[in-house]
Amino acid sequence: MAAPAEETVRASxxxxxxxxxxxxxxxxxxxxxxxSATSRADAAARLAEFRDQILSGRASFAxxxxxxxxxxxxxxxxxxxxxxxxxxxxxxxDATFALRVGETSxxxxxxxxxxxxxxxx
Length: 121
Known about the structure:
Residues 6-121 form the PpiC domain. InterPro entries: PPIase_dom_sf, PPIase_Pin1, PPIase_PpiC. By secondary structure, this protein is of the alpha+beta class. The chain is built from four helices and four strands. Strand 3 (108-110) and strand 4 form a beta hairpin. The longest helix is centred in the middle third of the chain and has 16 residues, at 40-55.
């Protein structure tokens, strides 16, 4: 029996952590001082601005991710590689699988923080 076409996806993301994030440290903020002082609303506002820059063509997704994402995937332009169902937090997984290749998500909330996701395959 053939496997469904949607077994795996590949995606990149930009993560902005905030005071409600489960882990309040990142490669940019090892002590978590900035993250702990950032509200969810402020994190989402920064992410919305990044999304606007990307969608308007003023910046590339990979460039914004490399400079601003709180995830260690920043060094790969936000690339998370290929993953299947059950490997990511549920809201992140659901949002990624719902995107078409080349599409960028709206803001997605997880226990890690707020994200925008670019489905790449």
